Amino acid sequence: MVHAEQVAGVSFALTDEQLMLQKLARDFVAKEIIPVAAHYDEEAKFPYDIFHKAREAGLVNTNIPEEYGGMGASLVDEVILAEEFGYGCTGISTSISTNGLGDLPIIIAGTPQQKAYWLGERLVERGELVSYCVTEPAAGSNVVGMESRAEKVGPKYVLNGTKTFITNASHANFFTVFAKTNPAAGHKGISCFIVERDMPGVIISKKFDKMGQRASDTAQITFENVEIPEENLLGPEGSGFLTAMRVFDYSRPAVAAAAVGLLRRAMEESIKYAQERETFGQPIWQHQAIGHKIAEMAINYEAARLLVLQAAWIVEAGQPNPKLSAIAKTFAADMAMKATIEAVQIFGGYGYMKEYPVEKLMRDVKVFQIYEGTSEIMRNILVREIFRK
Fold first, then answer.
1. Domain 243-386 falls in which CATH fold?
2. Which end of the chain has fewer surrounding CB within 10 Å, N or C?
């Protein structure tokens, strides 16, 4: 990876600490993830052992502030990690990194007491898992269309509803759940709660069998008259929508970074194969049709990586920009998808076989164009931002 020198107050160089973090993650991925990724994919097995190894190495719960036992990593640090894990296996990396999504509502809206207990004691000290629950069977991209309801009854809220496509749902110890507390108030009627897995009425009702990212658990959760103490409300009642939008500011650059990592893996596997495979008396990279495909991968990798770093940097600078996050997420997802299609083509018949890594990359990458906002929704956001008065 080449880094430019600082010019006119702008630097593309990673700090020494970030380079060390990158190397730590890269070494971990090479040793602990890549050798077993195909096995976990084939078995659709949740990588508990890898999660705990990553936790011991300091690569889990990295966004939790230092005062609660975490690393206090910046979003730029987070996207550096996400790229490295995405290079190894986006299924395993999703399992490892989901705490960094599920804990965001607590980081954003929690009181010091809530943060000390849920972030410090539960996630850092006990090594538990948390899942993020927004999407519903009839409400995906339209968050305001959610039907889950939390009704205040005395000192408690009673939660009813269903959440679907929830990552790590079958294994999480608790959830950050969004539901309507005032359905008539539109987006101002949504609130966020911390819900314990073992609360009566919490039912993990369906686990999905997926095309890709099979090492990541995805399931449906039903809440039937779940009684939630009012101290589990995150932020003021009715502030959930704004919390969810702030979560997207942090989560979309990290998701885009994982796609960038997968893109880099597709490119490097293609380069290696194009050097080894010969046709008509020469390595296939010397055929322009193949060489240009790899050149396009290199162009798109560098562009996507810089877009992701820019989107992360501007959030850290206190100027969240939905336009930049949408551009980064859309471009990274679309170009990673394109790269895997071309990688399979470069490998020819072998690319269609499970014994070669590009087959898995092509299955894994598709969901980047779907979750955390589809590529179509990202373009809608761009239109809105471009034409905003």
1. Butyryl-CoA Dehydrogenase, subunit A; domain 3 (1.20.140)
2. C
Both structure tokens of 158: 């009673």
Residue 42: other Cβ atoms inside 10 A: 12
pTM: 0.94
Q: At what angle do helices 90-97 and 75-88 cross, to 10 degrees?
A: 140
Give the CATH fold of the 130-241 domain.
Butyryl-CoA Dehydrogenase, subunit A; domain 2 (2.40.110)
Q: Give 16-125's CATH code, choosing from 2.30.110.10, 1.10.540.10, 3.40.50.300, 1.10.3470.10.
A: 1.10.540.10
The DSSP string of 230-257 is GGGEESSTT-HHHHHHHHHHHHHHHHHH
- Residues 102-133: tens digit of each pLDDT: 999 999 999 999 999 999 999 999 999 999 99
Q: Are 62 and 81 in contact (CB under 8 A)?
A: yes
Domain ranges of the chain: 16-125, 130-241, 243-386
Check: CB of residue 146 under 8 Å from CB of residue 244: no
pLDDT at 352: 96
pLDDT tens, residue by residue, 78-111: 999 999 999 999 999 999 999 999 999 999 999 9
Residues labelled as active-site residues: 372
